[in-house]
Design a protein that fits this description.
9 helices; about 300 residues; six-stranded antiparallel β-sheet; 14 strands; alpha+beta
């Protein structure tokens, strides 16, 4: 009976470990724990410097379309910061055609999140040490609500320092809605859809008057020398709407489109998968060992005289 219990425990451990990578967070903690990634990874938006009466700083963000994640880095200085205790918070507003959320981060994560926010997001943060010289803030948000992941979301945030709040952006569009997938679903005949897609791409290649893109793109911001004319904002395989152009022009930056790279598994997921495989091998070895031991310890039946 003891052998059966041990075997059952091994199988239970294997099942739990196999399920863990599936349920692992999609958040890449490198954006939270490794500041170097903000200077090395392509596709990061670098906004222009924000200045208020008592506040100055910059922020960068990265949108992982494939995994529905948003990462934010804020570097700032505020006259009210001290070398001792400071009350620093980051407030987020996220909305789409269906839902709207408001929640606040402090150094320990989301403060008092309601059930609606808990179900809709996973979040991590790293608030660097705040001193009179400034502070570095790193935050990551993963969208979990299926409805929110199927539409574009508008995100804005503000920083509160010792009771004073500074709104850093009116709205950042997170293009989670995949237009190409929606079009393909409307096509009943798969082969006809493929032919139409091929023809459309060929037409777009030969057209010089209009440039569109059929796949998601990421952008990086590069400070421009001038922002007096629309021609200075180059677009590669991307067309900006009037609203997007206006927001970009106000920031005084140039946009360069880059093809989205295929996402890789996070380090945490790779470790969990490796542990699961090792546990499977260990479980098989233990079961084989106890089965062999049980047969060996079983007394042989003596022949009757």
């Amino acid at each position: 009976m003891g052998i059966l219990k041990k075997a059952a425990a091994c199988f239970l451990m294997i099942i739990l470990l196999l399920l863990t990578p599936v349920n692992a967070f999609a958040i890449d903690t490198a954006f939270i724990d490794n500041p170097e990634i903000w200077y090395e990874k392509s596709g990061i938006y670098h906004a222009s410097e924000q200045k208020f009466e008592d506040f100055s700083g910059m922020f960068s963000y990265y949108t992982d379309i494939e995994n529905n994640c948003f990462y934010l880095h804020i570097s700032y200085n505020e006259k009210g910061l001290t070398d001792e205790e400071n009350d620093v918070k980051v407030e987020f507003h996220i909305s789409n055609d269906t839902n709207a959320y408001t929640f606040v981060f402090d150094e320990n994560g989301i403060t008092e999140p309601g059930n609606e926010v808990k179900k809709a997001f996973d979040a991590v943060c790293n608030f660097g040490n705040a001193t009179a010289q400034g502070q570095e803030l790193y935050l990551g948000i993963e969208f979990r609500n299926k409805a929110d992941k199927q539409v574009d979301n508008i995100l804005s945030f503000s920083v509160s320092v010792n009771g004073k709040s500074y709104k850093l952006t009116d709205g950042i569009r997170l293009p989670f809605y995949k237009e190409e997938s929606a079009k393909e679903k409307d096509n009943v005949n798969t082969s006809a859809a493929r032919e139409a897609k091929t023809s459309r791409k060929s037409t777009e290649k030969n057209s010089s008057s209009k440039v569109t893109t059929e796949k998601a793109t990421k952008f990086k911001y590069i400070p421009s020398q001038s922002s007096n004319s629309r021609e200075e904002y180059e677009t590669n395989d991307t067309v900006l709407s009037e609203g997007e152009f206006a927001e970009t022009k106000d920031n005084g930056v140039e946009i360069i489109a880059e093809e989205e790279k295929k996402p890789k598994l996070s380090a945490a997921s790779k470790i969990l998968i490796a542990v699961a495989v090792l546990s499977i091998l260990t479980g098989i070895a233990l079961i084989s060992y106890y089965s062999f031991k049980a047969k060996k310890d079983k007394p042989e039946k003596q022949d009757e005289v």
